[in-house]
Amino acid sequence: MRLGIDLGTTRTVVACSDRGNYPVLSFNDEAGNPVDWYPSVVAERRGELRFGFDALEAAQDPEWTLLRSFKRVLSSPRTTPDVEVTVGDSRISVLELLTRFLTSLREAILHRSNRPAGAQGDELVAVVATPANAHGAQRFVTLDAFRRAGFEVGAILNEPSAAGFEYSHRYRNTITSKREHIVVYDLGGGTFDASLVHISGRRHEAITTSGSAKLGGDDFDEALARLVKERVGLADEKLPRRAWARLLEQCREAKERLNPSSRRILIDLEASLGNRAPTPEVTIAVADYYERCTPLVQRTIKAMAPVMEVLAARTQSEDALSELAGIYVVGGASSLPLVGRVLREEYGRRVHRSPYPSAAVAMGLAIAVDEEAGFQIEDRLSRHFGVFREGEGGRAVVFDPIFSRDERVPGKGEAPVVHRRVYRAAHNVGRYRFVECAELDRNGVPHGDIAAFDDVLFPFDRGLRGLGPRLSEVPVQRIVGQGPLIQEEYAITPHGLVRVTITDLEAGYQQAYDVGAGA
């Protein structure tokens, strides 16, 4: 069975490629009702973990602790596969947590979903998505966890690039020879991403991406919860974790029920806070809530500005919007009526909202995994990658950019994109400090959102090549005389990861590293 899987911060959506159709799979929830998503949650009690609907059912028992939005841990620049997450009284690595969640998802697809009758067997081939601004470690952990959970991963795409497939499938008539670009606006549960996509026939080329790893539907839920607290005089009171979680859940459900004609929001405080509730319920005017949320929507527009600047540069038009086929609004959090209203005020009639905003990415991924559809994607990195080195004979540290943020990711079956560096080693041990960043300043120095990976050590001194992990204990010293001839090879893999291979060309000694894989 061929699937598109959108691993969401709050909900995971799965679409199936079925003979030219791309239906979203539904799952039976804890009450036995079909829903078009699988909850991205985990519950813990005395070391036992449950996931998805089983976690929601268990969380009705106060002995269980429910953790939502654990995917947000992946967006941290300090994330490695071994970083631990606290779930109740347990500590578990982020790789193990994600693997076990995806294993539960796999079981749900096979035994708890409405998968097509013709999709027999347990072989699951998937194209999966990561946020457009994902760090290399996030892409690595996502890929590794899917594989460990028993999925065959055909490709990893940026989420907004995947939504571009769904746009061209649904709004083909808006794409003309003069309007071949779309901007995908993807507001999910935990992240916001924007992507400029060039569409020519069945070829999709991701031109550039931007966004924020710390802005999504969770922030809109929290805005309502804090407004509720203010209205009942609890603004400065810290609620117990379980009470705050119940209030956030009520606010999330109330937000998702809003429609363009809604005027009031009713929150059952007694159900959320119990005897801490100063009043059984509270009513919030929708206008007041929208006023609180408008700055959040404006932050998405600001985060999208680099994409619009690239569009203007490519079209060389004073009115770049006139050259745009559409701005495609997707992502579960974009269902809030305020989002579309603010975007239309900013961009006018070019704004198209997906009829299935929560499922657009998964459906686009299902189209991408359909070999019969004939679509082609050219995706790109979304972050600069490079390494800090010694300069000026060891008197300075300089940044060597290896790949730019818009470097093309090779398609399936294509050769990797490769850069090489060859030099004579000057020290006994090479210590490589790799980083990713969203921007470079005018001097080529990383700034803004910077992710530094674990240092990679390579023994230039041939007498140190049996030390293994103890190499980190060896002090770095300059080599007397001529050092070995070293080659660094950097390759972008079809999954958008960077593989580094360091070779002593004269001795034939070589080590390879997947950047972001950790120790």
CATH topology of the largest domain: Nucleotidyltransferase, domain 5
- How far apart the termini lie comes to 34 Å
Number of strands: 29
Strand order of the largest sheet: 19-18-13-14-15-20
- Give the DSSP E fraction (strand runs of 2 or more residues): 25-35%
Number of helices: 10
- What does the radius of gyration come to? 25 Å
Q: Structural class of the secondary elements?
A: alpha+beta
Give the low-confidence spans: none
Q: Largest beta sheet, briefly?
A: 6 strands, mixed
Net shape: globular
What descriptors fit this protein?
29 strands, 519 residues, 6-stranded mixed sheet, 10 helices, 3 domains, alpha+beta, 32% strand, Substrate Binding Domain Of DNAk, Chain A, domain 1, Actin, Chain A, domain 4
